[in-house]
Specification:
4 helices; elongated
């Protein structure tokens, strides 16, 4: 059972107006990556190596994760609880499904 399920069931059983959802981001290009990626001429090659197994072949952005959080906090998602959303460029779906590089 996922982490969000227990909280969602508890809150629903207690008639609490609390939704429990989780966001699982993968490689999101935030400042914590900077020491690894560096700023030398090899940066692009290191970035490509890190996302080679990601079908979308790129890092995600903080804005993309924030958009999911905004959706979950909005009234448009008022019936959504107990959900775990993976924001990973298709990595969980499998790199075998990735389009062939040019």
């Amino acid at each position: 059972m996922g982490e969000a399920f227990g909280g969602a069931l508890y809150c629903a059983e207690q008639a609490l107006k609390i939704r429990c959802n989780l966001i699982h981001p993968a490689a999101i290009l935030t400042p914590m990556w900077e020491p690894i990626l560096g700023d030398d001429p090899g940066r692009e090659a290191r970035m490509a190596a890190f996302v080679a197994d990601t079908p979308m072949r790129r890092f995600g952005t903080p804005e993309e994760v924030a958009a999911i959080a905004l959706l979950l906090a909005s009234d448009e998602a008022s019936y959504m609880t107990g959900t775990e959303l993976t924001v990973d460029g298709g990595q969980v779906a499998g790199s075998a499904a990735a389009p062939k590089a040019d």
